[in-house]
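Entry for the shared binder. Reason: the reviewer on the internal report wants the predicted structure included alongside the sequence.
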Amino acid sequence: MRWRLICDDNVHASFGLAADEVLTRRVGLGKSVPVLRLYSYKNYCALVGRFQDVHSELNLDYCKQSALSINRRPTGGGAIFMGENQLGVAMCIPGKDDDTYGRARELMARFSEGIISGLNALGVAAQFRRKNDIEVDGRKIAGLGIFRDSSGGLLFHSSILVDMDIAMMLKVLNTPFEKISDKEVATVAERITTVCREGKRRIAISEMRVKISEGYQKVFNISFEKDDFSLEEKEEIADLEKEKYLRQDWVFQTPHVKDSVGMAKLKTEKGLLDIRLTLAGQQIKALFIRGDFFAAENAVADLEGSFRWHSSNQQKIEDTLNKVYTLRKNELSSLPLEALKKAVNQALQRAKILERKQASEPYGCFVTPGGNAHV
């Protein structure tokens, strides 16, 4: 089967997102064969997930000072920092009746196989893990998202960290850290990785494109025809930019529930535990574990990654901690499990207290669908 392959660089955020949605719609309507689009954004932009709050996720003052574009993806997932050193992947295919969001993880695991094949060809031992990540030994190297258009078309999104300015990323994305120091940069550097780092050499976006397209050819048994946007597609993209992705009420939608951050410090016989936990409603959005204990960095990263968008139910938290410790017993032996359970619970309770306080305060205004509503 022959697919279209579209490659473009230095695109603006509004154009890039509108282009993916237009292609998905046209594929769903049968106006185009499936498309694989491999592109990079103009330095720099910050893109939040479909159901995220821009104010919670991004340092808007820094983004404004640095003239960074801000926008909202149609796909779910977390906020990402994109530029010329990150490869955007959009796969637009016809959907099936059973391609529902209830199968999102299964679909993302399948669609990510082309990326994984391409990374493996570069000597990067990547694998699909958790809810929507591609990782290398517990460190995230690519994020994934999925969107089903009303036409029936499916959009699979991914952002591959070919390289990354971590210090700048931390200035753009809000984190539970009080300040961004060399220590915080080093901490995050051990939680994520890049293709250049894993490949131990400089890898160009052009080389990455070749490997990813070859990966999809191999996994899906397809061939590509290099293509560009048709005149009709360009007109539709321009219209969608104007109607949606250049509108403030799309980008700055406000959710009904604010994020809240809880912190806890606990001295143990093995060292100090310093926990930062971000709570979004009933979900733990992020967990950071720091301190002066000794443990394998990749094991701690694996532990933290297990709590991305995790239930705040106490039993489920304990079950996850027990599971990771069973798998990583030797690497985490100097990080006391019971002390960690206690510290995470303390941070969670403090986040809940803050959440209740925020709920009792005036919070914006009631809005209607089509305005600033978060739907």
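Summary line for the report: Residues 166 and 334 are 28 Å apart (CA to CA).
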